[in-house]
Amino acid sequence: MTLTHLSLAQFRSWSRLDLDLDHRPLAIFGSNGSGKTNILEAVSMLAPGRGLRAAPAPDQARQGRDAGWRIRAAVDDHAVETAAPPGQSRSVLIDDKPVAQTALGRLLRILWLVPAMDRLWSDPPEARRRFLDRVTLSLFPDHADVALTYDRAMRERNRLLKDQIGDPGWYRALEAQMGDAGAALTRNRQAALTAIMAAQDGGDFPAATLTLLPGEGQADDPDPDSIAARLAAMRPRDLGAGRSLTGPHRADLGAHWGPQDMPAALSSTGEQKALLLSLILANARALSDQPVVLLLDEVAAHLDADRRAALYDRICALPAQSLLTGTGPELFDSFGPRARRLAVTRDDGVSAAAEIAA
Ligand SMILES: Nc1ncnc2c1ncn2[C@@H]1O[C@H](COP(=O)(O)OP(=O)(O)OP(=O)(O)O)[C@@H](O)[C@H]1O
User: Fold this and answer.
1) What pTM, to 2 d.p., does this model score?
2) Per residue in 85-99, pLDDT tens?
3) Do residues 113 and 301 touch, judged by C-beta distance below 8 A?
4) What is the number of the ligand 1 atom nearest to the C-alpha of 344?
């Protein structure tokens, strides 16, 4: 499947945008604040979740309008629409039928790399866990449902803990649910890391070893009964804390690479970026039989000309559609005619786009 058309209405700095897409990479360039990343964010809303900025829906509506926003897309012969009218949460329609957001994950696999992820390896574990779950979701679309089931049971257990309800009978069913869903969550995450490691090509970056770290919560255990048993054993401590302190929701992602098995967090800033880029490309490669859209925000600016050329070669070899941003067209020169160029400008606060010849 291919994302063949994108249409935006009142989305961030865009009043309207109509964009045809094909298999060629799309290099989007323009000044700071012109609205390039807003296009990538709109594409990321074609995946379940809150998109690459994790923004609340009202923030995405063009300011000064009370209209809410709407994104329409054509994915082969499917019509996809997602919209958030004022004061309402986001809705999703596929072929005019309302569907759960999770249905989006079965249509396109959307991967992204944005500057906010530059410090991923030294950020708190939540950021890596979100990244891990996005990667996992791209490979296993049922991961969203499993995560939701786990989350619901955990919230309910946390509510009991917060209300200091001590009766074990109230907890057992929830802990069994957390055990079942948590084990599936962990198995998915482990399988995703194995798939990504196998798909690394050693291009610009030595292959990394990725590990699911247990964290404080022993969050690498794929056995339902032992997760539930540990939750039961930890109940007195959890009652003291008023929340669940153990389980897959405490997992962390570790990465080591190179001859000295260097932890990613100790690598240089450039190495950390290269590692992430290499993992995103591996993620796309691991999905080679799926329709992948790769969003790379301001990746080119950090690379020297040779690395940029090598990256573009690898992007062109991927079985994926790619959208990239950068401030100037020269950043994309080494694509030559292989990529389309879209110039983005902004007048009176409203973004506009024009395709230019390569
Ligand atoms: N809800 C909104 N309504 C109108 N404009 C918005 C909204 N949200 C963000 N913007 C504007 O969009 C601009 C940012 O757009 P975007 O992040 O796409 O820029 P960019 O071209 O990627 O810039 P840079 O090169 O600096 O990353 C900002 O000027 C911001 O004020």
Assistant:
1) 0.92
2) 998 999 999 999 999
3) no
4) 21
Nearest Cα to Cα of residue 294 among 313, 319, 327: 319
* Domain boundaries defined on the chain: 1-108+291-358, 112-289
Residue owning the nearest CA to atom 9 of ligand 1: 12
Separation of 21 CA from ligand 1 center, angstroms?
22
Q: What is the DSSP letter of 61?
A: B
3-state helix, strand, coil in the chain (%, to 5): 45, 25, 30
* pLDDT tier for residue 102 given thresholds of 50, 70 and 90: confident
Q: Which CATH class is domain 1-108+291-358?
A: alpha beta
Give percent of the chain with pLDDT exceeding 70: 100
Q: Whose C-alpha lies nearest to ligand 1, atom 15?
A: 35
What kind of fold does domain 112-289 have according to CATH?
Glutathione S-transferase Yfyf (Class Pi); Chain A, domain 2 (1.20.1050)
Atom 7, ligand 1: residue with shortest CA distance: 12
pLDDT at site 141: 84
CA separation (Å) from 104 to 57, 141, 157, 225, 245? 17, 9, 29, 32, 32
Residue 34 Cα, ligand 1 centroid: separation in angstroms? 6
- Residue 293: strand, helix, or coil: strand
Query: Is pLDDT of 217 > 80?
Result: no
Q: What's the pLDDT tens digit per position in 24-61? A: 999 999 999 999 999 999 999 999 889 999 999 999 99
Ligand 1 contact via 63 beta carbon (within 6 Å): yes
**Opening angle at CA 119, ends 114 and 120, nearest 5:** 80
pLDDT per residue as tens digits for the range 143-157: 988 999 999 999 999
- Cβ of 33 closer than 6 Å to ligand 1, yes or no, is yes
Both structure tokens of 350 = 């409203």
